Amino acid sequence: MSAPDDVTLPGSRIGIRDLPKISLHDHLDGGLRPQTIIELAEPLGIELPAATAPELAAWFAEKSDSGSLVEYLKTFDLTIAVMQTAEGLTRVAREFVEDLADDGVIYGELRWAPEQHLSRGLTLDETVEAVQRGIDEATDSVRAAGGWVRAGQLVSAMRHLDRGTEIAQLALRHRDRGVVGFDIAGPEAGFPASRLSEAFDLLARACFPATVHAGEADGVESIREALVDGHALRLGHGVRIAEDITIERADDESTFVSLGRVAQWVKDRGIALETSPSSNLQTGAIAAWGDTLADHPFDLLYQLGFRVTVNTDNRLMSATSLTRELALLAETFGYGMDDLEAFQLNAAEVAFLPLEDREELVDRIRDGFGRA
Q1: How would DSSP label each residue in 269-310?
Q2: Where is the signal peptide (predicted)?
Q3: Which of 327, 361, 331, 318 is nearest to 75 (CA)?
Q4: What is the mean pLDDT of residues 20-32?
């Protein structure tokens, strides 16, 4: 699977990189610059598997392309290790948002798990504050240079650990200071959203939005629990909702599609699917349908009217950007500018922001695509 870093679609005057984009599913610990890892690791005494930034980038790409979510997640041991100080967290967050802006992203949600960043003495609140400093520094510098970007934190609890309620309370403490939503991450199979039902109930009573990783490493029942027990307004990946879709072909070659109860619920209520095409291939999330992007159920879901969005998941591990993901989809499924605009509008409409701010994003997207 290959695509240029940027393409200009037929009938357009500008490349995909210059179009306004929304990034909803992008992990902070999956988007570090390789050179930054090297520079942060040295004073902490962390041994690296490669000495130069290009070699380290290649190492991440190789280790991440295993077809297993469990193996994929192991690469995060290294990135998380260099994100254990306030200075490190601030720098990573600042560069993360700067890289989003360089890719044409106008709004990004940075998801990460504060409980994984306490080994060198930081408190949970201090980690959130350090990340917010980086976000603020980046947005200020981008705007000072004539650009425009906005970003918010999605605080994640690790679904296989037992700090869900504590992390939900952390998110609520910072809801007016940069945290826009809640998530659960980590191994999906065997660790359903119901394990953290107390945390989700707390958030629902406080009218605070949640997205849940579901339908990536587990199937339809995991999605059902994300919706019922997790009160999820969006589904992290969610691609295995396609397991609840039946396609039948009659003798006259007519095609009939029927949706199961969960799929129908997700479609009818416009619950967004935070798909990440390259990552979904790497982790085996679409293994039931094949092992190439053409096998990804993205186009099926799009054609059936599901609210699909396009994301990167982990830019370092997948050696990708949002521009590249969109270029790959356009190349594979023959999408044009109207399709790419639809994906961005989908994302803007479900961003964890007040309605007026989402309407501003919609206006910026329409203006940007209108100039293309």
Answers
A1: TTPEEEE-HHHHHHTTTTTTT-SSGGG-THHHHHHTT--EEE
A2: none
A3: 318
A4: 98
Q: Does pLDDT of 1 surpass 70?
A: no
The verdict on residue 372 lying in a domain is no
Mean predicted lDDT score pLDDT of the chain: 95
Q: Do strands 21-27 and 272-275 pair parallel, antiparallel, or not at all (unpaired)?
A: unpaired
Q: What is the rounded CA–CA span in Å between residue 58 and residue 77?
A: 16
The residue range of the domain holding 318 is 16-366
Domain at 288, CATH number: 3.20.20.140
Is the Cα dihedral 256, 262, 264, 270 positive or negative? negative
Mean pLDDT of 268-273: 98
| DSSP state at residue 200 | H
Q: Is pLDDT at 74 greater than 90 in this prediction? A: no
Task: Tell me if 241 sits within 8 A of 261, measured CB to CB.
Answer: no
Q: Give the whole-angstrom CA distance, residue 162 versus residue 142.
A: 38
Total number of residues shown for the chain = 372
CA 268 to centroid of chain Cα atoms = 23
Half-sphere CA count of 35, side-chain side, radius 13 A: 2
* Torsion region of 237: left, alpha or beta (phi above 0 gives left; psi -120 to 50 gives alpha): left
pLDDT at 4: 65
125 pLDDT above the threshold of 60: yes
pLDDT value of residue 254: 84
Residue 279 domain-assigned?
yes
Count of structural domains, the chain: 1
Determine how many CB atoms are found less than 10 A away from the CB of residue 53. Answer: 15
- Which residue type does 212 have? V
- Residue 136 inside a domain? The answer is yes
356-368 pLDDT per residue, tens: 999 999 999 999 9
Which residues belong to the active site?
216
Give pTM, 2 decimals. Answer: 0.95
φ/ψ of 173, rounded to 5, equals -65, -30
Cβ neighbors of 168 (< 8 A, separation 6 or more) are 157, 182, 199, 200, 202, 203
Which helix H or strand E contains 129, and what residues bound it? helix 124-144
